[in-house]
């Protein structure tokens, strides 16, 4: 009976981690694709230029693949060391995510203030050599969200040292329309507009976060259960 239980958990964990590994491959693939076709998905931060969507996906995909691989081999080989390593790695990631979420809610106001300051610094890189990604990202955000600047369209005045904004701020796009009067520009601040959009889609974000947490908890449960079963089987055989 114990042997059948161990075999059942073994194959369930193998399938679980195989799907986990395939998911990591998909995330890594998207990250590499974005890196190759980089431009529209670069970071808006001047303090963390490497913190782009492509790099985040590549790092995330790599970690998921490694963890999934360790879990697969640990399950199929019934290796206690690998099972325990898988459990510890997944637990560390889960605790880090939990810590980040708690810190985010505790320091929301400070994060808001710092983020706005950092984004305003990033505006000065707009249109400069080697920052096509940031330039395109701001153009897309301002066009899609119908906003201009971080907290106000006047943020761009400091960048250009004159009364003008990028053409992506215009109500009706045309060449050099950013040189026209403020009446022809979007007035909404991009930071608040995007923040409101995220709040309106908080349910979807919450469901995604909950599903991610459940998958991780399921993985931890599988790993520890199988580890205990392998230990029991080894003790019984001894």
From TrEMBL:
It is a multi-pass membrane protein. One of its GO terms (molecular function) is integrin binding. The keyword Glycoprotein applies. CDD domains: NET-5_like_LEL. Pfam families: Tetraspanin. Keywords: Disulfide bond, Glycoprotein, Membrane, Transmembrane, Transmembrane helix. Disulfide bonds join 148-169. It is found in: Membrane. The keyword Transmembrane helix applies. The chain crosses the membrane at residues 12-36, 56-76, 83-107, 202-223. GO terms for biological process: protein-containing complex assembly. GO terms for cellular component: plasma membrane; vesicle. Belongs to the tetraspanin (TM4SF) family. This is Tetraspanin. The gene is TSPAN4.
């Amino acid at each position: 009976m114990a042997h059948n239980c161990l075999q059942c958990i073994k194959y369930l964990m193998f399938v679980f981690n195989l799907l986990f590994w395939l998911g990591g491959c998909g995330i890594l693939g998207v990250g590499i694709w974005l890196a190759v076709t980089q431009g529209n998905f670069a970071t808006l931060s001047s303090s963390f230029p490497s913190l782009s969507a492509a790099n985040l996906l590549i790092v995330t995909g790599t970690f998921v693949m490694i963890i999934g691989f360790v879990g697969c081999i640990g399950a199929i080989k019934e290796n206690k060391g690998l099972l325990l390593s898988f459990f510890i790695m997944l637990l560390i990631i889960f605790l880090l995510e939990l810590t980040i979420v708690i810190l985010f809610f505790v320091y929301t106001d400070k994060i808001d203030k710092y983020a706005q300051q950092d984004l305003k610094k990033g505006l000065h890189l707009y249109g400069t050599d080697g920052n096509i990604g940031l330039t395109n990202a701001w153009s897309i955000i301002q066009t899609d969200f119908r906003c201009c600047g971080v907290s106000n369209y006047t943020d761009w005045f400091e960048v250009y040292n004159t009364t003008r904004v990028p053409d992506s701020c215009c109500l009706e796009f045309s060449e050099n329309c950013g040189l026209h009067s403020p009446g022809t520009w979007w007035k909404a601040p991009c930071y608040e507009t995007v923040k409101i959009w995220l709040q309106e889609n908080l349910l979807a974000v919450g469901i995604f976060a909950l599903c991610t947490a459940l998958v991780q908890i399921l993985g931890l449960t599988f790993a520890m259960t199988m580890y205990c079963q392998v230990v029991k089987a080894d003790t019984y055989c001894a």
